[in-house]
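[step 3/7] fold_predict: job queued, chain A
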Amino acid sequence: MLPIENKLRNPQEMTQNCGVLPAAMGLVSAIFLSLGFFGYVAFGDQVQSTITLNMPRTPFYLVVNLTLVVAAYIGHVVNLYVVVAMLWPGTKRKGRRRFPCLFLTYEMHLEILFRICLVLATYFFAVLVPKLELMIPLIGITAGIMIAFIFPPFFEMLTFWREWRSFENYSRKFFYFKLITNSLIIISAGFIMVFGLYQNLYLIYTTIYS
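[step 4/7] structure written:
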């Protein structure tokens, strides 16, 4: 989010009520919720890991599959924009120190090659990992839960603990409120992660050895 915010002409519009982030997340959430809801309504318990596998082999649904492929390619490029913005500056800085002549002459070509390697890495990961639809929830329930619910309150307490405890700018009630709410979020997320991890590992085991 930060690389995109830094590129905006008016960065304050990123998180406003009708700003870039709420509008984009609202639209994406509506699309995914609609796809999941209507997909389940159409196919019920027979829905497969990818909704395209349930579609009939007719010209109309062939066009639908092609549009989904195009959307996946475009969405993948947008997602990798943030990854490149985070990784390429450090890679370029180290490359300039070790290979100054090469980066001075072919810097643009090397950046394109770097992007191609990232795309190929994700492609080979998707191809080589069997039962990828089982691995995605496993990563989501672990890394996703930690990044979204455990790390933010933990690092907030780690960063502002002394400032909160000084009671100079914050009251005692505020300190206990933040302590209790952040602790509850971390504990709840921990329970969800443990039970979700157990369920996903059990599902992987039964799928592979059944």
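[step 5/7] annotate
The longest helix spans residues 59-98.
The mean pLDDT is 85.
exit 0
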